[in-house]
Amino acid sequence: MSAIEIRNLKKSFRVYSDRGHALKDRALSAKRRRYELRTVLDGVSLTIREGEAVGLIGKNGCGKSTLLKLISRILYPDAGSVTCKGRVSSLIELGAGFHPDMTGRENIYTNASIFGLTRKEIDARLGEIIAFSELEQFLDNPVRTYSSGMYMRLAFSVAIHVNADILLIDEILAVGDAAFQAKCFDRLMEIKAAGTTIVIVSHSLAQLERICDRTVWLDGGRIRMEGAPNAVHPQYMEFMGQLRKPVSAPQPEQPRGSAESPVQLTEMYLENAAGVRTDRLCTGEAAVLVIRYAAKPAEAEPVLVGLALYRADNVLCYGTNTEREHLPYLKPQERGEIRCKFSAVNLIAGSYWFDIALRRADMFAYDYAAKAVQFTVYNTIDETGIARLCHTWEGLQ
User: Fold this and answer.
1) How buried is 276 (Cβ within 10 angstroms: 0-12 exposed, 13-18 middle, 19+ buried)?
2) For 170, which of 95, 131, 201, 372 could close a Cys bridge (C-beta 3.0–4.6 Å)?
3) pLDDT tens digits along 238-260
């Protein structure tokens, strides 16, 4: 059964170059009322099943938020139709529907009533809403005194306790501290397990990979690709990488650490099994992390090399250094190259990066590069978690 049916949806906006706001300006300056008709969505059709979690991705201005507002009926289409089955709860703009001079408690009642709850229903859920938001001591203060994170806590708490059939979220999970973000994700997974349909807009692919069953990539107001996150995200990352590649010729290697440091990182990148520089790997593929450095051998003590592998949501996947592995210290040369070979990169599909460090034996950092090597892993298997455990199945026939 479908929860949301979108058919040939079209939406345009008038963009005025210099629009007069006063009646006098409008009467005397007709030329200022000229506008450009900008098409944001152009014939989008999409079916979202009941209980499905769908992520919307795309570069800024591609129509993600507009599509969410059309589903929630904040906006209305120029052509086409949107049909939703059941109660819709939305987190589209931070604090939308909140009155700044009203207290948090008063805004709970106001915001929940907008979602269609009765006073009796709000009274019954008030304790749960307050407890989830963790704002008990601030609840009777005007919300204009709240930080953006506190706004998000209150808005999210109300939205998830509406018991809606469809939940719409637009980038709001990027706000708030790490502990509350983790709490929100856990709650979203509970809501999803209960059968709620979720549509979420986010630039964090790692967030979508944890929550969503399907990703829809919008580009230029149309659906460019849709499917499992591990199939769509690598293609999207490759596309975005092409957009940001510099057109100028590569610059010669230069040390990147402080001028006083006797050992400095100069270049870091990945090579695939064929020895070709890459930022895209398949799960299980062999790879080599190449680390180049420049040093003043007379001033440098022996060096240990460390690396840390992170997923796009800052989850530490792996960390090591040459001292922990009982390997000899590096004796720096004026120019050198270190190669760390991985026989199989058994990460599931997603975005990752390496932090790389060159340190003395006392752990003083000669040089440290955060997000030094960023890359994407793709895979045709819809796996979850962080790493693939090598395995075989028996007894299936």
Assistant:
1) exposed
2) 201
3) 787 655 544 444 444 555 555 67
